[in-house]
Write a structure and sequence with these properties.
- The chain is 52% helix and 8% strand.
- The strands form 2 sheets. Strands 2-1-7-6-5 form a 5-stranded antiparallel sheet, with helices on both faces.
- By secondary structure, the protein is α+β, with helices and mostly antiparallel strands.
- Helix 4 crosses helix 5.
Length: 359
C-alpha cells in the first residue's frame, strides 16, 4: 500500500515538474520572440530615424552626379560659388537632426530670407497689416517684375517677390536703418538657432548692382506702398539676402516653422503659431518663383527657394527639410534641391495631401 502511494506521489511530482518546464519554455520563447522583433521608435515625422536616414542617403546617392543647371551669374559673387556643394538636412519637430553630404559649406540665403522677414512682419504688426500694406497674391510674373507693381499700383503683390519683399523689409519695426537691420539679423538667427553673419563679398557685389531694386522701391514709394526710406530699405534688403547659411541652418529654420514657431533644437519661441499659420500659405502659393504651382502640386509642402542654391520646405507638425546646391534651373530654383526634397517626401510618404482613407 505504501509503495503504491509512493509511486502515485512520484507520478504527481513528475507531472508537476513537466508542466513547469513547459510553461517556462513557452515564456522564454515569447520573450525571445519579442526581443527578436523590436518595434522601432517613431520620430515626430511619423517614421523611424532609420527610415529618415535611409531616405536621405538614397536621395544623396541618386542625385549627387546630376549635372543640370548653372550658378546664378547676375550677382557676380554667386557665379564663383562651388557648384559641387550638395548638402541635405532634415530637422524633426522633436529636435532630431539628420544630415547627408556637405552641410559645412555656406551660401548666401538670398530669397529664402523673405519667408522669415514676412513672418517677422506678421509677428510685429499682425497678419492683416501684411495683407493690406503689401498683399498675399501670386503675381504670375517674374520675381523682380516692375510690371507687377505698375499694373496694380503697388497692390496685389506678396512678400516673396522683390517688390513685396523690399516693402516687407521697410515694415520691420525700428527707428533707423541700423536698428531694422539688427532686428532682421537677430530674428533670422533665432530661426536658425545660432548667430548668423553677413557674407560681405556677396553684399558688396549685390549692392553695387541693385539699381533695379532701387527703382522698384521708389516706384512703390510713388504709390504709397513703401514704409521707410526707399534707398535705405533696399540696402537692408540687400544685406538680408547676403546672410550666410548652411543646409542645416535652413533645415532648422524650416523646422521652426514646422513646429509652430518654436525652434525644435533650442526650444526657444521665435514667432507665434498664428504667425506660422499665415506665413505658410504664402510659401505654398509663391515660394518657388514662376514654378511655385508645379512645386506645390508635386510635393505638397510650402517652401522657399533662393538663387544662392538653397531650398527649404516645411512639413507642418512633422519636420523641416533643406538642401543646398548652387546650380539653378531657368526659374531660379536649385535643380538638385528640388529633386532631393521631392524624393525624400515621397519616400517618407510625407505629403500632407496623401490621405489614407479610414477603414
Amino acid at each position: 500500500m505504501k509503495n503504491q502511494i509512493s509511486r502515485m506521489n512520484i507520478l504527481q511530482i513528475t507531472g508537476i515538474l513537466v508542466m513547469c518546464l513547459i510553461i517556462s519554455s513557452n515564456t522564454f520563447a515569447q520573450k525571445a520572440k519579442g526581443k527578436a522583433t523590436p518595434v522601432p521608435a517613431l520620430t515626430s515625422a511619423g517614421v523611424s530615424a532609420a527610415d529618415i536616414t535611409i531616405a536621405l542617403d538614397e536621395a544623396y546617392n541618386k542625385f549627387v552626379d546630376v549635372k543640370e543647371g548653372k550658378n546664378a551669374d547676375y550677382i557676380k559673387e554667386l557665379a564663383n560659388v562651388d557648384p559641387k556643394i550638395f548638402g541635405i538636412a532634415l530637422v524633426t519637430t522633436d529636435g532630431q537632426v539628420f544630415t547627408k553630404g556637405d552641410i559645412a559649406s555656406m551660401v548666401s540665403i538670398q530669397s529664402v530670407s523673405k519667408a522669415f522677414v514676412a513672418a517677422q512682419v506678421i509677428e510685429e504688426s499682425g497678419h492683416q497689416a501684411l495683407q493690406d500694406k503689401i498683399g498675399v497674391d501670386a503675381t504670375g510674373l517674374k520675381f523682380n517684375s516692375i510690371v507687377a507693381v505698375e499694373e496694380h499700383k503697388g497692390k496685389e503683390i506678396n512678400p516673396l517677390v522683390n517688390p513685396g519683399a523690399i516693402a516687407a523689409t521697410s515694415m520691420v519695426l525700428g527707428a533707423d536703418s541700423a536698428t531694422k537691420w539688427k532686428s532682421i539679423l537677430t530674428k533670422q538667427s533665432e530661426f536658425a538657432g545660432r548667430q548668423l553673419s553677413l557674407n560681405m563679398p556677396v553684399y558688396i557685389s549685390e549692392a553695387g548692382d541693385n539699381l533695379r531694386n532701387q527703382a522698384i522701391a521708389h516706384l512703390l514709394l510713388a504709390y504709397g506702398r513703401m514704409y521707410f526710406d526707399p534707398a535705405q530699405a533696399t540696402d537692408i534688403y540687400t544685406k538680408q539676402c547676403a546672410i550666410n547659411v548652411s543646409a542645416k541652418d535652413l533645415a532648422v529654420m524650416a523646422g521652426t516653422l514646422a513646429n509652430g514657431g518654436v525652434n525644435p533644437v533650442t526650444k526657444i519661441k521665435v514667432v507665434s503659431p498664428e504667425t506660422v499659420m499665415y506665413t505658410l500659405p504664402v510659401l505654398a502659393t509663391a515660394g518657388l518663383y514662376d514654378d511655385s504651382g508645379i512645386w506645390f502640386y508635386n510635393s505638397g509642402l510650402p517652401a522657399k527657394s533662393g538663387v544662392g542654391g538653397g531650398i527649404m520646405a516645411v512639413c507642418p507638425g512633422k519636420f523641416g527639410i533643406a538642401v543646398v546646391s548652387p546650380p539653378l534651373d531657368e526659374a531660379g530654383n536649385s535643380v538638385k534641391a528640388q529633386l532631393a526634397i521631392k524624393y525624400i517626401v515621397e519616400k517618407l510618404k510625407a505629403n500632407p495631401y496623401l490621405i489614407q482613407p479610414k477603414q
